[in-house]
Specification:
Blueprint: E1 9-15, H1 18-22, E2 29-36, E3 39-47, H2 54-69, H3 77-93, E4 111-119, E5 122-128, E6 132-137, E7 143-146, H4 165-168, E8 170-175, E9 177-183, H5 185-191, E10 192-193, E11 198-199, H6 201-213, H7 217-229, H8 231-236, E12 241-247
Helix pairs in contact: 2-3
C-alpha cells in the first residue's frame, strides 16, 4: 500500500546578512524540516556571531531534532525535545572541532533554536533564545506566538549550548493552525512591531497569503529569498535571515 503524499507544504530560505557579506563570512543560520503523513517537524537555528563554529552548532541541532522527533509520540514531545537537545550537545562535545572534548568547548558552537512539531490539529513550539514562531489559526484570524527572549541586556540571548539551557527552554502549545512561521532574529524586526509585542500584519499576512496560493515551489522559494534579500531588509537588519513557512 502506497503512502499518501503529505498535505503539508513547506517553503524555507536562509540569506546571508549584510554584515557577514561585508566580512566574507558564511551565513550562520540553518533550517531543517521533515514530514511524515500529517506530521511535521520544523526547526530553525541561528549560530551566534561570536561563536567560531556557530553554523555547525545550528546545523547539528536542527538535524538532530528533526531526526529524533519525527517518529516520537506527540503526547511525549516535551520530553523528547529535551532528549534531542541533550543529544545535540553530546554530539558537539565529541565533535572534532571541540578541542576540549567537554562542555566548556560548547561555547564555540553557540546557537539559538526555535522549532515546531505538528500532528493533525495539534502543535507545539519549542524555543531557546531570540528567534520567534507564529501559528496562524484557522478560526477568527487568531495567532499563537512564541516571542524572542533576550538576556538582561537586549544584545544578549540564550543558547542551547549553555550549561543552564534547560532553564531557557520554553514550550507553547497551539491547535488548529492553518500555517506557521519560524524565524531567526534577523527577521523578527519585520514580523513584529511595538517592541515585539504584536505581529506586523503588513509583513506576515502577504507572505502567508502568497505562499498558500503559489503552487510552483520554485517561484515560492525565489519570492521568499527576494523578500529576505532586499536592500531595505539588509539596511534595517544586517544579520543573517531565515524564515520557514509551513501551510496545512
Amino acid at each position: 500500500m502506497k503512502n499518501k503524499p503529505s498535505q503539508i507544504s513547506v517553503v524555507a530560505a536562509s540569506v546571508r546578512g549584510a554584515y557577514h557579506t561585508s566580512k566574507n563570512l558564511p551565513c550562520q543560520d540553518y533550517f531543517c524540516h521533515l514530514t511524515r503523513g500529517s506530521k511535521l517537524v520544523a526547526v530553525v537555528a541561528d549560530g551566534a556571531g561570536s561563536a567560531k563554529y556557530g553554523k555547525i552548532g545550528a546545523k547539528i541541532v536542527c538535524e538532530t531534532l528533526c531526526d529524533m522527533l519525527i517518529g516520537a509520540q506527540f503526547q511525549d514531545m516535551r520530553r523528547k525535545v529535551s532528549e534531542a537537545l541533550e543529544t545535540a550537545r553530546q554530539k558537539l562535545i565529541l565533535h572534532r572541532f571541540n578541542a576540549l572534548k567537554s562542555e566548556e568547548g560548547l561555547i564555540d558552537f553557540a546557537a539559538t533554536v526555535v522549532g515546531a512539531v505538528c500532528h493533525q490539529n495539534k502543535g507545539l513550539f519549542f524555543h531557546i533564545g531570540d528567534g520567534a514562531a507564529v501559528a496562524l489559526l484557522k478560526e477568527n484570524g487568531g495567532a499563537v506566538i512564541s516571542r524572542p527572549e533576550n538576556g538582561v541586556f537586549s544584545c544578549e540571548t540564550y543558547f542551547y549550548t549553555m550549561d543552564d539551557w534547560q532553564d531557557s527552554l520554553r514550550f507553547t502549545p497551539f491547535e488548529k493552525a492553518k500555517s506557521l512561521m519560524l524565524m531567526t532574529d534577523g527577521v523578527t524586526g519585520f514580523a513584529f512591531k511595538d517592541g515585539l509585542e504584536y505581529l506586523e500584519q503588513k509583513f506576515v499576512t502577504p507572505i502567508d497569503a502568497f505562499l498558500r496560493l503559489e503552487k510552483n515551489r520554485g517561484r515560492a522559494l525565489r519570492a521568499l529569498n527576494n523578500t529576505l534579500s532586499t536592500p531595505t531588509a539588509h539596511r534595517l537588519n544586517p544579520d543573517d535571515k531565515t524564515l520557514l513557512w509551513a501551510g496545512f
